[in-house]
Structures are given as C-alpha cells and as structure tokens.
Amino acid sequence: MAPPADPPVPSAQNTAAPVARPPLVAKPVTAWATGMLMAKVPCSAREATQILQAAADMAHLSAAEIAAAVVSAARGEAAPAHVERALRRTVLVARSSSPRAARGTGLLPSLTRTEEVLSRLHGCRARLAQAPDDPGALRAMDDAAYTLCVLLGQPRLRLAISAAEQHLSDLR
Description:
Elements: H1 12-15, H2 29-40, H3 45-59, H4 63-74, H5 81-95, H6 111-130, H7 135-152, H8 157-170
Helix pairs in contact: 2-3, 2-4, 2-6, 2-7, 3-4, 3-5, 6-7, 6-8, 7-8
C-alpha cells in the first residue's frame, strides 16, 4: 500500500486574498431624469427637481420612484398610468405662464447677447437630450437657463425663452 500523499502546498498565488472589485455603480436615476426633464420641458435643474417632487406627491410615490419611471419610459418601457398622468400634469403646469411675470419691465438686453444666450441654451438642450445623465451637460444647461432668466428678468425658463424670442422678433 502506498503512503498517503502529502496535501498540496499552497502557492503564494493561492494564499492571496481574492482581489475585491469595486461594485458597479449605477448612474443616478434622479440625475438622468432631471436631465431629461431639463431638455424636454425646458427648465432649470431646480424646476426639474420640483417637477419630479410634484409628480411624486400627486402619484403618492417618492421622487426616486418617479425618476425611475421617467428613465424606464425613455427606454421604451411603459410607466404606470397614474405616474404618466402625474408627470403630464406637472410638466403642463411648469410650461404654463406665471401670473407674476410682467412684460416690459426693466431694460432689454442687446439683440446680440439675447441671440447668443438663446443659441447656447438650444445647444445645451440638444447635448442634454443626447446624454441626460452627463453632469457637464446638466451644469451647462442649468447655467444657460439661469443666464437667460436673469438676462430677461423672468422667473421661469419657459417665460424667458418666450421673452427672448419675442425680443428678437420685435426688433428685427
């Protein structure tokens, strides 16, 4: 009878602890949904966050759940009917005129500056529509939206865009 074989000696390769891989981090769904709303409504990041929260309140869900529904709808998956209804209503409210906005108050900016900022905003919207979760695109859109609102003295981006287009058509 042969003697029992010695157990294999662990090599340095086998004794090392397995290399821990960092967990795959999913892109923040809320940032993606915010970017999509900013590009489609159009609105600032603050207004997009308010839209998500208002829709969440209306649908009795969390803002993260609404954001997930927005992202999955963009991927072709159907969102629940009550979520779609809540989003449509809040976007409609965001697009509607504000009674506080007064036309003709203050000085109007130059045509060149107005056209420059409006063009930059449209470029940012296109970039954000291509990559809604890109932090650089989100910041650029928010900066352009803020600049246009301040330039034209309007509290909401939709009103600022309308005022800019009106200003450009009035003086041409």
